[in-house]
Amino acid sequence: xxxxxxxxxxxxxxxxxxxIEAVEKAxxxxxxxxxxxxxRPTIKVPKQKGAVLFMPAYLEEMNALGxxxxxxxxxxxxxxxxxxxxxxxxxxxxxxxELLAVMDGAFLTAxxxxxxxxxxTKYLARKDAxxxxxxxxxxxxxxxxxxxxxxxxxxxxxAYDVLPDKCKLFCNEVAKExxxxxxxxxxxxxxxxxxxxxxxxxxxxxxxxxxEWLEAGSHVNAIGSHTxxxxxxxxxxxKRAKLVVDSREAALKEAGDLIIxxxxxxxxQDHIYAELGEIVTGKKxxxxxxxxxxxxxxxxxxxxxxxxxxxxxxLAIKKGVGRAVQL
Length: 327
What we know:
By secondary structure, the protein is of the alpha/beta class. The chain is built from twelve helices and 16 strands. Strands 1, 2, 3, 4, 5, 6, 7 and 16 form an eight-stranded mixed sheet that branches. The N and C termini lie close together (7 Å).
């Protein structure tokens, strides 16, 4: 029997705290070498401004094996009334190869991406960090704020988006859901200035954060850009920072934030200080003082999806959620 889990099913069992716990364990496994995760292939659909990514992973210690198929179609919200990101996860039993579950991947993707930033913030942001500046007021932005609120005592959020009405709605919803002060600001610079933690969750292909805007001791989670021709951070941000990535291989092949300044001769590959898994396992230090600037550049890894999907499956079985179907 295969367990089918709808978006509502996934939402009913998965909390951000659960996701952060699963993703932290996944990065720990990645850092210890007990993960099999091929680099994801991507099929582009240029006529529709879309792409489909295939993301498999096996985490030995977490007993998690599966694949996520996720699509990113930029025109979906305007043209079709659909989310930009859609996805499905197939979870498999590592012991037998039997399919265990098919579950909605869109909500899971948003939560696990937020969870990765939560893990990075736990190790890289100052302990007393309490003010967030976020650029990008979409679904992913909400999950980024929610994750950081789980690991730091956040009191204030400053939000900016190129669509003011969207940003206003974001501020109202986040304030209500998380019980923190959320204010709309007029520019990306205003969002960044004075913030302890800066987060970028935009669809911009050109930098939305400049290095000179950052305060000493700040931490940046950059999650919006994930292709070689797009970036959210200018070269000055990376030059000033201790740079941590989720995967060196993925970052150097997919992250325009690194690829573009390296091609321009402004950075070298050696500027990458560590992978997040190396920090989670203690192989490298995280934040070492209150004045350094740290950056976590996330491409999004299949280990995040499959570890979180395994957590969802276990919780669904425990709580009797979902529908079992004979294929």
